Amino acid sequence: EKLLSCTTDAIVPFLDKLNAEIATIETFFVATLTQLEKKLNEIERERRASDDEQKGVLALREINRNLNALEEFSRLNYVSAAKILKKLDKSMESEVKTIYITEILNVQTFHTALSSTLRNLSERVE
């Protein structure tokens, strides 16, 4: 609501496009995170069923690399969106950035899950 009240007609199409891009990022992040969790659960089951302590070590390293890449993807997209909004505010003399970040960007899973979920999965991998 606050966001709509401070936008002009010229900014609305831009925000619609940004919202679509954020949704794409969110979908990719959630799908990738879910896939990595499933792989990790499978590896953990296999390791518990085996006497071989080295079983799945390479797969765990791969999951860890993927988690690190997903974390970088998430941070990069968050920072990019914030910079885009900063430029929008400057060029359109608006104050969209703070409201958009608070109401839209900060509630996305790719931002909120970044700390807790990725850290939790990384600890399980190590």
Structure, described:
- The chain is an all-alpha fold and 126 residues long.
- It has one domain (2-125).
- 81% of the residues lie in helices and 0% in strands.
- The chain has helices at 2-5, 12-48, 57-92, 96-103, 109-125.
- Helix 2 (12-48) packs antiparallel against helix 3.
- The longest helix has 37 residues, at 12-48.
- The model has no long low-confidence stretch (mean pLDDT 85).
- Overall shape: elongated
Beta-strand residue fraction:
under 5%
Tally of DSSP β-strands:
0
Number of helices: 5
Q: Roughly how many Å apart are the termini?
A: 43 Å
- Can you tell me the residue ranges where pLDDT is under 50 for at least 5 consecutive residues? none
Order of helices and strands: HHHHH
Structural class: mainly alpha
Tell me the helix content: over 70%
Key terms:
5 helices, single chain, mainly alpha, 126 residues
Helix and strand layout, with pairings?
Elements: H1 2-5, H2 12-48, H3 57-92, H4 96-103, H5 109-125
Helix pairs in contact: 2-3, 2-5, 3-4, 3-5
Summary?
The protein has helices at residues 2-5, 12-48, 57-92, 96-103, 109-125.
